[in-house]
Amino acid sequence: MSPYVAAEDLSMFGHDPWWLVVVKAVFCFAFLMVTVLFSIVWERKVVAWMQLRIGPNRHGPWGMLQSLADGVKLMLKEDLIVKRADKVVYVLAPIVATVPAFMAIAVIPFGPAGNEVSIFGQRTTMQLTDLPIAMLYILAVASIGIYGIVLAGWSSGSTYPLLGGLRSCAQMISYEIAMGAAFASVFLYSGSMSTSTIVEQQQDRWYILLLPVSFVLYVITMVGETNRAPFDMPESEGDLVGGFNTEYSSIKFALFMLAEYVNMVTVSAVSTTLFLGGWRAPWPISTFWEGANHGWWPMLWFVLKVQLLLFFFIWLRGTLPRVRYDQLMKLGWKVLIPVSVTWLMLVATVRTLRNENYDFADIFLYVGGGALALLVLSFVVDMFRNGGKSAPAPAEPAGFDPMAGGFPVPPLPGQELPPVPRRRSRQERELVVSGGTDTVSDGSRDGKEASDG
């Protein structure tokens, strides 16, 4: 086996008594719920601070119980089911969207696998379980959640929820390809898909330093995966009236909101595990304090990193405007996917040369020379693609009738709306109303003067 491939040791998992497994599962569920309740209040507080507002300040100290009050209010509201809805699918859709969001946390390590803690006198790891293909498990359960949104849009029996659900499906396909390529770069460096092994491999240097492009790609794709601003196309209120959850109310609407925030916590935990050293203490602390990565302290560092990424979500929402849907798809297919695949090829090349015991200088020379040769080749191809011929003159845009289908539609790129007839000025409208003499329009005079003539 290559020295750069990690040897997986998952023997410490699967030996807990059944009651301890239940306790750890309840802890994971409670951790997500408490983090969601805090994140909702924190988001409203931070955005209010950015916009020079007060934010929630009525329920509980400093308004910290506002999200709990909102949850109770939603549970007590009247639950409606629209007449044209497919009732079975309509009810199951929020559950399908919510349950997979909780499942991914099962393989996230809150602490080192080799450093067991005591829970009711029983020594155990700070992780519910781990798998040799834990990251594939996370991708699988994340992909299931999108079915809840698509089914919610379809089962509502309404046009705009259906459009929101289809947008979610297209957005997930576009951004999960780049996300998978970002994951693959981590797999190549760590030699494993196990979450605990990936964190162990970051003992000397976090992967955010070794794989910065993969980190940036994952951060962008995780915003798109969670349907958060500026990529909140499935529920853009401006053009869909609310999106896939338009026809939902009460507890079913609350489940969709819960799934969104739980997904935010989950992708932040995955980003922490893959790129930010997981439960490891930051660099200045880990150097002068030997016990920083032992006992219950790793959970503190993990929670702080997750909260930092949640603040990044909030910062984006308070800063960037929503993009258009064509911009969203162009970013996914024409930018993120080519960049992620090219970066994956570079990472694979570097790992192969490292496994062959090449020096860093030789690797830099080979990889840099290959990248430079590709750039020069693409430049030459662009210069001689047209064979020296001038570009043809653009064709005149075809006429566009916005009412051709019976209802108004917006123009596509390259199409122009017909000119709008000039409206009368305010003075002309007043003259027409008052019956003045200066009311000639389009070569004809008003009816009174015509009858007098």
From TrEMBL:
<feature type="transmembrane region" description="Helical">
    <location>
        <begin position="299"/>
        <end position="319"/>
    </location>
</feature>
<feature type="transmembrane region" description="Helical">
    <location>
        <begin position="363"/>
        <end position="381"/>
    </location>
</feature>
<comment type="similarity">
    <text>Belongs to the complex I subunit 1 family.</text>
</comment>
<feature type="transmembrane region" description="Helical">
    <location>
        <begin position="253"/>
        <end position="279"/>
    </location>
</feature>
<keyword id="KW-0812">Transmembrane</keyword>
<feature type="transmembrane region" description="Helical">
    <location>
        <begin position="206"/>
        <end position="224"/>
    </location>
</feature>
<comment type="subunit">
    <text>NDH-1 is composed of 14 different subunits. Subunits NuoA, H, J, K, L, M, N constitute the membrane sector of the complex.</text>
</comment>
<keyword id="KW-1003">Cell membrane</keyword>
<feature type="transmembrane region" description="Helical">
    <location>
        <begin position="175"/>
        <end position="194"/>
    </location>
</feature>
<feature type="transmembrane region" description="Helical">
    <location>
        <begin position="331"/>
        <end position="351"/>
    </location>
</feature>
<keyword id="KW-0472">Membrane</keyword>
<keyword id="KW-0830">Ubiquinone</keyword>
<dbReference type="InterPro" id="IPR001694">
    <property type="entry name" value="NADH_UbQ_OxRdtase_su1/FPO"/>
</dbReference>
<comment type="function">
    <text>NDH-1 shuttles electrons from NADH, via FMN and iron-sulfur (Fe-S) centers, to quinones in the respiratory chain. The immediate electron acceptor for the enzyme in this species is believed to be ubiquinone. Couples the redox reaction to proton translocation (for every two electrons transferred, four hydrogen ions are translocated across the cytoplasmic membrane), and thus conserves the redox energy in a proton gradient. This subunit may bind ubiquinone.</text>
</comment>
<keyword id="KW-1278">Translocase</keyword>
<dbReference type="Pfam" id="PF00146">
    <property type="entry name" value="NADHdh"/>
</dbReference>
<feature type="transmembrane region" description="Helical">
    <location>
        <begin position="131"/>
        <end position="154"/>
    </location>
</feature>
<feature type="region of interest" description="Disordered">
    <location>
        <begin position="395"/>
        <end position="453"/>
    </location>
</feature>
<dbReference type="InterPro" id="IPR018086">
    <property type="entry name" value="NADH_UbQ_OxRdtase_su1_CS"/>
</dbReference>
<feature type="compositionally biased region" description="Basic and acidic residues">
    <location>
        <begin position="443"/>
        <end position="453"/>
    </location>
</feature>
<protein>
    <recommendedName>
        <fullName>NADH-quinone oxidoreductase subunit H</fullName>
        <ecNumber>7.1.1.-</ecNumber>
    </recommendedName>
</protein>
<feature type="transmembrane region" description="Helical">
    <location>
        <begin position="88"/>
        <end position="111"/>
    </location>
</feature>
<keyword id="KW-0874">Quinone</keyword>
<feature type="transmembrane region" description="Helical">
    <location>
        <begin position="18"/>
        <end position="42"/>
    </location>
</feature>
<keyword id="KW-1133">Transmembrane helix</keyword>
<feature type="compositionally biased region" description="Pro residues">
    <location>
        <begin position="408"/>
        <end position="420"/>
    </location>
</feature>
<keyword id="KW-0520">NAD</keyword>
